[in-house]
Amino acid sequence: MIPLVGDLSDRIGRRPPIIVGSLLAGLMSFAYLYAISIKNVPLAFVFSILMWGVVYQGYNAVFPSFYPELFPTRARVSGMAIAQNVGTMLTALLPAAFAAIAPPGSANVPLTIGACAFGVTVISAIAAFSARETNRVHLNDLGEPGAVAVGKVEYDQLRRQAAAGWPVRRGRIFSVGESCMKWR
Question: Where are the alpha helices (DSSP H) in 38-174?
């Protein structure tokens, strides 16, 4: 799924897959938690594969390129590293928070914890929606106020040439999918 969604994000932008992937994964948490609550292991397995292996990849495939692209070159590594580590730390605290919100034996645990998980994904989707779109922006211009995206026709041409291994003029660097490629 990651290569497919990464390619899609190059075509339609970074924000839509992150928003849709986050929200759908959050919604699927209700079904997954319900399957666990009724002790249906096969159903829980199916929902976990769909949620984590398919739907969540809309977010997972794109964030490695989207987050760094939000920062100018001089702050890109630090900005990404700090944001990623703080986010990971907060995420690691969620199971303890969920256990405090709905301790074992509580009523409606799937609904309560599902609502909390969905709330987190809504916050993520709002953050992605409020961020600027970084698709088709020259790598050297990323994070700069007023950076202008390359026109779709030119971008598609450069992308086809890069995929074919042809040298590309301009000497600029673009972000493509999850990797940065130097365009010659």
Answer: 41-48, 57-60, 63-69, 76-101, 109-130, 152-164
Angular region, 173: left φ>0, alpha ψ -120 to 50, beta rest? beta
Q: Which two tokens mark 110?
A: 């799937």
pLDDT of residue 181: 43
For residues 169 and 154, the answer to whether their CB atoms sit within 8 Å is no
- Burial of 20 from C-beta contacts in 10 A (0-12 / 13-18 / 19+): middle
Which pLDDT tens digit goes with each residue over 94-151?
999 999 999 988 899 999 999 999 999 999 999 999 998 888 888 778 888 788 888 8
How far CA 139 is from CA of 43, 67, 69, 156, 160, in Å, comes to 44, 13, 7, 16, 18
3-class secondary-structure state, position 99: helix
CA separation for the pair 54, 62 (Å, rounded): 13
- 132 within 8 A of 142, measured Cβ to Cβ: no
Residues 6+ apart with CB under 8 A from 29: 51, 113, 114, 117, 118, 121
Percent of the chain with pLDDT over 90: 53
Q: Considering only residues 167 and 99, tell me which one the structure prediction assigns the higher pLDDT.
A: 99
